[in-house]
Amino acid sequence: MDENNEIVEVEEEITVQGNDTIKISNEAVATYAGIAVSEVSGVYGMSGGFAGITEALSGKKNLAKGIKVDVDEKSAKIDVNIIVEYGARIPDVAFEIQTGVKKSVENMTGLKVLEVNVHVQGVHAITDKETAEEQTENKTEE
């Protein structure tokens, strides 16, 4: 990109203007962030939003579930809502999420990520029922 390009927000999309035009939607930025979050160990799942209803109706996994993106001209602020696995050290998980999301979004979009706020919505504890289901699955695989 040369220095004459400018970034303009249009209806929840980022438009890079210059010789060519590129539009990056907030949903695309949220998806990049969601992929980065899914790669962090200690994250049981995402929380928040209407993504669960969308997933149920469409049958597709929504990688942007639980992620809110606020994009300015050249920067982004990202909020991530997660459920951690029981036993995971929350500060370590949050730091990995912040680092991964920032790197991923900046590399893929060229936007400067100013904030990655991690909101822990809950802790997933392994129940006796889940342990029994896992043992049953392991027996059927053998």
Provide a concise account of the structure shown.
It contains four helices and seven strands.
Task: Determine the fraction of residues in helical runs and give it as a percent range.
Answer: 25-40%
Q: Average pLDDT across residues?
A: 79
Structural class: alpha+beta
Number of DSSP E strands: 7
Question: What is the strand content?
Answer: 25-35%
Distance between the termini: 55 Å
Low-confidence stretches: 1-11
Roughly how many Å is the radius of gyration? 18 Å
Task: Write down the secondary-structure element order.
Answer: EEEHEHEEHEH
Main beta-sheet strand count, sense and barrel state: 4 strands, mixed
Tally of contiguous helical segments: 4
Q: What characteristic shape results from the CA principal axes? A: elongated
Structural notes for this entry:
- This protein has helices at residues 26-38, 51-58, 90-109, 128-141; strands spanning 6-10, 13-17, 22-25, 43-46, 67-71, 75-85, 112-124.
- By secondary structure, it is α+β, with helices and mostly antiparallel strands.
- Strands 4, 5, 6 and 7 form a 4-stranded mixed beta sheet that branches.
- α1 packs across α3 (90-109).
Could you name the key traits of this structure?
142 residues, alpha+beta, disordered N terminus, four-stranded mixed sheet, three-stranded antiparallel sheet, single chain
Topology:
Blueprint: E1 6-10, E2 13-17, E3 22-25, H1 26-38, E4 43-46, H2 51-58, E5 67-71, E6 75-85, H3 90-109, E7 112-124, H4 128-141
Parallel strand pairs: 6-7
Antiparallel strand pairs: 1-2, 2-3, 4-6, 5-6
Helix pairs in contact: 1-3
